[in-house]
Structure formats: C-alpha cells, structure tokens
Design a protein that fits this description.
By secondary structure, the chain is of the alpha/beta class. It is 31% helix and 20% strand.
Length: 253
C-alpha cells in the first residue's frame, strides 16, 4: 500500500529548497530555547530540576526533518491564492503554522521558571533572557541565578482531634521528610498522599489528602533553614476524622 508517509518523504525531497522567501518582513522564525543555571552551591538533583524547568519553555518551535521544515513549506503554500489539492492535502497531513520570535513571551516564561525554582526551595532566584538573532531565525536563552536552597530544620505537626491524632503522628514518624531535606513542594504533596494512604489502611475512608496543609516558617533561622508545620484545614467534615469500625461478622455455613 502507498502510505501517506511515503508521499511526505518524496514531497520533501522535491521541496528541499528553503522557506526564507516566505518569512514576513520584520519577523524571524523561532528555533527554540535553552536554560543556563548559575549557582553558588552544588544543586542536588540538578538533572531532575532541569527536566522540570524545561516544561516551562513555551512555545514549541516548528519541527524539522533532515534539516528542513516541510511542515512550514506546506503552510506557506496553502496561503497562495490557488494552493492546489496536493498542497492542501499535505498541509492537512503534515503542515504547521509558523512560530515567530514575536510569539515568544519571555517575561511569562521567566515567571513560571521562578515559580518552579521557589517550589524547589530556591527562593529569591532571578531570571533573565536574551535572544540570539540571525537574519531570519532567533533562539532564546534563559539565564537563571540560583542561590543556596532552603532546607528543613524541624518537621512539626499541629494537634489534631481524636481519634485521628495518633494515626497521623504514627504516619509522620515514618516520613521521608527529615532534617536537612530541601524545600520541595512535590515532596510535600507526596507526604500528604502517604499520610492519606496510611489513614485509609486504618479505616479513615472519608479522609482526603486535600484536608491537610503545610506551612513553612523561614523567620526562625538566618542560615536558610525553615520549620515545616502540618495542619488540618478548616471546615473538614467530622465524618472524615472518624474511622470505620467493624460492627458484626455474619457467617454463612
């Protein structure tokens, strides 16, 4: 069978010429972005942090194939007065609208990057960006200045009503949030899920991890330490704080 991908490859060979002539005056094609981190200390788990930061990079540049951009070629062809059936079909299959330098909102991306850094304990970070411009192409580099992260000094829990107080204390006693742990919003979410699962195993089927809230106090120390407090949110339903108990056992011989 003659599949569309074969037509695409053949058409790409015929349309191997550049698309520069189609780029509007005053515009440049956006070719992508990168992140550079400058830190005054070793970043624990830098590989995973970088992977998380990469998710903030927007927009996605146009795809390439063997160094060419056939998707863009088909887009520009369909903008003609009479693009023809083949060009319209190829655009429908593989075409892409162009992404220009003017489509990149660097300020918004910088804000998201800073938010992600704060969620990982790197408070008071800074971000800047600069474009590398060629005649008809442009890429952007985001420069992040990352200070030493905040680390946990103490993990405290508020008093909870009976009878759920002791099970929560027991769950926290086997927590992975230990002294020296870097502030990490993701780990706090996992901690809430851990506590919720622990309670479910003990009959608290109406409890929900969203009923718990963390508060961090960074004002007690001068060396980027913080105390973490676990509290119960307001207006939690009373039935969520009570475990299910076995009433009776029926035996059918």
């Amino acid at each position: 069978d003659f599949k569309p991908i074969y037509i695409f490859i053949i058409a790409t060979c015929f349309y191997s010429c550049g698309i520069d002539k189609y780029i509007p005056e005053g515009e440049r094609l956006y070719t992508g972005s990168s992140i550079k981190i400058a830190s005054d200390s070793l970043i624990e788990g830098e590989k995973y942090l970088m992977a998380e930061l990469q998710t903030a990079l927007r927009p996605e540049p146009n795809s390439t194939f063997l160094g060419m951009r056939p998707g863009l070629h088909y887009y520009y062809k369909t903008q003609k007065e009479k693009p023809g059936f083949i060009n319209r079909w190829l655009y429908k299959q593989f075409g892409e609208k162009p992404v220009y330098q003017s489509d990149v909102q660097t300020n918004e991306v910088e804000e998201v990057l800073l938010n992600q850094l704060e969620n990982n304990g790197f408070l008071y970070s800074s971000a800047s960006s600069n474009f590398e411009e060629k005649e008809q192409e442009a890429s952007v580099t985001y420069n992040l200045k990352v200070p030493k992260p905040y680390r946990m000094k103490k993990y405290r829990i508020d008093s909870f009503p009976e009878p759920i107080d002791q099970p929560i204390k027991d769950a926290v006693s086997i927590s992975e949030l230990i002294t020296g742990k870097r502030f990490d919003l993701g780990n706090m979410k996992l901690e809430r899920q851990h506590i919720d699962a622990y309670l479910k195993e003990r009959g608290y089927f109406n409890f929900n991890s969203d009923f718990l809230i963390f508060e961090a106090d960074t004002n007690q120390y001068a060396n980027k330490r913080f105390d973490l407090f676990l509290r119960l949110k307001k207006d939690v339903p009373k039935r969520a704080l009570l475990p299910y108990k076995l009433s009776k056992v029926n035996v059918f011989p």
